[in-house]
Amino acid sequence: MHPDTPQRPGDYFVTGTDTEIGKTLIACALLHAAARQGWSAAGMKAVAAGARREGGRWINEDVEQLRRASSVALPDAVRCPYVLRQAVAPHIAAAAAGVVLDPAAIRQAYRLATAHADAVVVEGVGGFRVPLDDTRDTADLAQQLGLPVILVVGMRLGCISHALLTAEAIAARGLHLAGWVANHVDPAMQQAPANVQALARRLAAPLIGSVPCLAQPDPVAAARHLQVSALYPAGRST
Length: 238
Description:
Blueprint: E1 12-16, H1 23-36, E2 41-45, E3 47-49, E4 52-54, E5 57-59, H2 61-69, H3 76-79, E6 82-84, H4 90-97, H5 103-114, E7 119-123, H6 138-145, E8 149-154, H7 159-172, E9 177-183, H8 192-202, E10 207-211, H9 219-223
Parallel strand pairs: 1-7, 1-8, 2-7, 3-6, 8-9, 9-10
Antiparallel strand pairs: 4-5
Helix pairs in contact: 1-2, 5-6, 7-8
């Protein structure tokens, strides 16, 4: 953890076993669940790659979903310090835009976010070790933030190995795995419950919830499948 990073209950870093496995959906669900428990909650994304120009701003859909799910508003530059145009790996999108992805700027955005909300959910990028430049990746960023980690496991073939390897990488950085979510992204996955059980036996963290395949990726509906009382005790004064 970087020495200037605050330590607060209710703040989490959300990572995943891969890209396109529902990190944003679960991060937004956590925000709704936190608000339901009486916490003012705001979501931010460290880096967003893939944006459209609208009203003089670059708009990323993941960032917009986090904005809509938050119970308090954050300034645009705090909600996501880096919104990149190309929908490619962040370090490649940044290089194409002539931008340096500076973890210090992301840490500063997180510090500013803590002034607005009781609970801040920081969504990572892709999997746990996505490059930010030639030498640093999002695991380095997570380590500097020092937040407890929530792992989103995209339930599909191969997820057990991906989840266990990610958990090992989180532990190797000295971070606490606060819990994990089984997000069922493949409706045709065979023996999905058995896979969840296998992970529950092997991951040294509580299963926060098992989110079924949803016809629409609705974070309010997803939040109903999460058990967050340990993450956000009820009765927080907003």
